[in-house]
Amino acid sequence: MKEYKDVLIKYLPPNSVDLVIELFEEHPCYLKIVNNRSTKHGDFKVLANGTHQITINYGLNPYRFLLTLVHEVAHLVTYKISRRVKPHGIEWKTNFQHLMLPFFDPKIYPNELMGLLANYMKNPKASTDADVNLSLALKKYDEKNGFNYVFELPLQSKFIHNNSVFIRGKKRRTRIECVEVITQKKYLFHQNAEVKSLK
User: Fold this and answer.
1) CA 162 to CA 93: how far, in whole Å?
2) Helices and strands (H, E) in the chain, number of each type
3) pTM (2 decimals)?
């Protein structure tokens, strides 16, 4: 586990590393740090040889990295206990809540995140980005990368997403309607989708 510790110390809040090592000792799997993916922060899969693998994006800030890691370990635990259940159903929610308990510590998470995390964990969703308040609070700890959430942009402003230019439109319940400039097609963006603003 020493090699895990040497790697994890670069990505996690310092006071969480030993707890994460204990988690891996109890639930062994192959951890892979991968290039950032725009559609997900992490994932869990069963490999062809029957072993388990968790991948996490390398660019996450320590607090989001930890939350994503525990989220994926909860998938691993759920798979081992009951394989034929919904990916983010009640079994996964219960396991996620249980596994996160040791990390609810002001020595690990800043006070401003503790209340938001507690609220999110009452009924965790498939993505932390579904919780706008928590997502915004976590974003404060990201390295500045020039990206904004779609909902932060003014109406009719232009932005780039996946090498295409869009115009930000009105909000429809939880999604924001945007128009691709070249094709004039309408797309619904999650309000927390990260995009590059064009000033």
Assistant:
1) 32
2) 6, 9
3) 0.80
